Amino acid sequence: MKISGSCHCGYITYEGEADPEKASICHCTDCQTSTGSAFRTNIPVAAEHFRMSGGKPTDYVKTTAESGNPRVQAFCPRCGTPLYSTSPGDNPAAYIVRIGKLDQRDQLMPKSQNWFRSAQPWLTAIAGLRTNQKGA
Length: 136
Description:
- By secondary structure, this protein is mainly beta.
- It has one helix at 29-35; strands spanning 2-6, 12-17, 24-26, 40-46, 50-54, 58-63, 70-75, 82-86, 94-98, 112-114.
- The chain has one domain: Metal Binding Protein, Guanine Nucleotide Exchange Factor, Chain A (Beta Complex), CATH 2.170.150.70.
- The chain has a 7-stranded mixed β-sheet with strand order 6-7-8-9-4-3-10. Strands 1-2-5 form a 3-stranded antiparallel β-sheet, with no helix packed on it.
- It is globular and about 45 Å long.
C-alpha cells in the first residue's frame, strides 16, 4: 500500500510502499526509552520505495541493547519527531518507519509484537480502563 507522512512540524515529508502485513509493535527497552512510551509501532519500507522531501533529518547511531548492532535513528531537527531507523551506511536495504507519523496509521494494525518479554506488565490490562473521547 502507498504510505505518506511527515514530522510534527511538517519540515520533513515522506512517502513509500509498505506491506500492511508487516506492521509491528516493538516492546524492546530501546524503543520504550526513545519514544517515552510503552512501545513503538513500525513498518518496514524497502529503500527503493522510500522517498523523503523537505528538510534533512538529523540522525545518530545507537548500539542496540541486546544485539549490539548499530542502528541509525533519524528524527526531525526542528521538532524532534522520530521518523525511522535503518542500517548505517550509504545504501541501507530498508527503513523502519514509525507508524504514528503516517497518514494511514489507522489502516496499519500491527500483526506482531516483538521483544514482548520487555513489555510493560500492565499493557494487557488497558482494554478495561475507563475511556474519555477527549482529554480528561
